[in-house]
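tl;dr need the bound structure. longer version: we got a ligand (heme C) that a collaborator sent over and nobodys looked at where it sits. i said id run it. heres the input, straight from their email, havent touched it
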Amino acid sequence: MKRLSVFLAFVLAIFAYACGGSGDTSSAGKPAPKSMIDDPVADDGKGVGEIKEVSLNSPLKPGMVEKGKAIYEMKCAACHKLSDQRVVGPGWKGVTERRKPEWIMNMTTNVDIMLEKDPAAQALLKECLVRMPNQNLSIGDARDVLEFMYANDGHEVGN
Ligand code: HEC
């Protein structure tokens, strides 16, 4: 009888330990298993997409600024003002100071993936509640729009 109760106590102790253990691991603060974390790369502020490095012009190239402005008026002006006022999307004033040029070009050429993976783009989506639609800009178009954004932020335009 004594041996049985010692044995029972031992079994109960194991159960208690096992339950405590599994209770702990299923608690809320548990980190997700590795397989559920996708692309755990450090955020370098350049966004997600094929634009890795942009070289800027100083002074800006007037032809590019012109083309960028025309694209803006045709495809972007409905949602973006040139002031800091938000309409559907954020106003563009100061955007070149808030964001790296690579981020801006990835946002304009790869918006769906950016909204899915880039933390800054996701934060904007939370604020604006509207997904920016893909505008089908070529990389060249996006570069011209970027030139126009720098002009809008007061950078000097050459002749
Ligand atoms: C239908 C509305 C709409 C149009 C058209 C649109 N956008 Fe957007 N844009 C948004 C919204 C909304 C956001 C904020 C992110 C989100 O919610 O998807 C945004 C965000 C951005 C941002 C980031 C701004 C910041 O402050 O960081 C850039 C850059 C941008 N858009 C560029 C463009 C360009 C370039 C065009 C035109 C080729 C364009 N957008 C056309 C709605 C639009």
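gonna send this back to them w/ a short note. The radius of gyration is 27 Å.
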